[in-house]
Every structure is written in structure tokens, then in C-alpha cells.
């Protein structure tokens, strides 16, 4: 394999994204041959002993990507110190090693979530510069006016920072609530819920129905399936 940057190797092991691996290096969590590693260091897995938090780094022999229908109340993380249910617990034990969520859905939301041990795919899907599309169906309180929807489409600033434009269409209105379909090209923390609150139409239910060209389809809540390379290949290529 040859020597490579440590953040790339840690991400390739499926432990986290490359950006998170860089943070781990800065925090002193990575060692090579017993010595504390620095950001920018390189190592060769064939002859160097690489460890993260004292555990040997194990690179996968093959890549695996799954599509999961995350239920509400389940955390998009590998482990929760408070013992709350996580997405990995929905998978067979033999598939869990090396897998990590690609991006997040907040605990109250449900729908499409990718899990992978492929660090390169994780980087492509989570780095803002690639702007991959994610599609949502959202029930909000009330009946938003046309002007309100136009404001949402233009992008509502959050935390003093501008938001990218949003593709949005109103699907139907029923018993005091409105169903919207949104397509986002960024994934800021609880972006849809916070925007809806600012506009005066809080979210009642939120489901992600597609990540790029990979649809949730008829996959039931809590169920998962393998994503074949032909499906996620376009996701790993910058637009």
C-alpha cells in the first residue's frame, strides 16, 4: 500500500471522516509505532503500527456501504455514552466493525442514512464543497404563504451565516398542516427544523427520502440494504 497521510488511513479504516481524523490527530489520539503522531505525518500500514485511542488501526479488506431507514429516536452515531439506541444497533453484529454513519439525521428525524467503511466516499458525501443533493418530505404546522415559501427557497441565514438556496414545493395541506418536499445541498445542524421555526411553521414530521440518486424507496423503518457500487458511484464524484 505504501506510506500515506494518517488522516487518510484513519478515514479509510471507517472510523470517521477525513476531517474528523484530522481533529483526532490534533487531539493526540493517534500514534505510530508508539509515538504521538502529528497532522501531516505519513505511515505505511504494512510496516508501521498505527493506533487510535490505543487500539490498532485495521484497514478493511473490502468496502461496504449500506442504506438504512433510520427510525425516529435512534442516534446517528456509533456509540452513545448515555446508552441511547444508535444506528449500528440496527445492523447485524458481524457487519458493524468499521462502519460509521455518513452524515447525520437528528434523533427526532427519520429516513435515509448511509453507513460505510469507505473513507473516500464519506469525504465526498460530507464535505460542503461537493454539495450533493438530499431530498426530504416535511410536515409543518399551518399553511405557509407563498412569500414565506419564497423566502425559504432563497435560503434563510442561520447563526449569522447565509444558507444556500433550497428547492421546495408544496405537496398538500391537511388538517392544519402542510406537506413540503425540499432538496438541500448543504447539511447544517438541524437546518430544516431551525428554518421552519424561524418562518413560523414548526416541523411536525421530517423524513429524508433520498441521498443523491439513492432513494429510500419502500425500505421499512429500521430496515437496511446494501448499496451497490453502481448506485453510489455518482455520489463519489464531485459535480
Automatic annotation (TrEMBL):
Keywords: Isomerase, RNA-binding
EC main group: isomerase
Protein name as it appears in the record: Pseudouridine synthase
PANTHER family: PSEUDOURIDINE SYNTHASE FAMILY PROTEIN-RELATED, RNA-BINDING S4 DOMAIN-CONTAINING PROTEIN
One annotated GO molecular function: isomerase activity
RNA-binding S4 domain segment(s): 4-61
Coiled-coil segments: none
Entry-linked SMART domains: S4
Stored Pfam families: PseudoU_synth_2, S4
UniProt keyword NADP, yes or no: no
Family: Belongs to the pseudouridine synthase RsuA family.
The keyword Translocase is assigned to this record: no
EC number of this enzyme: 5.4.99.-
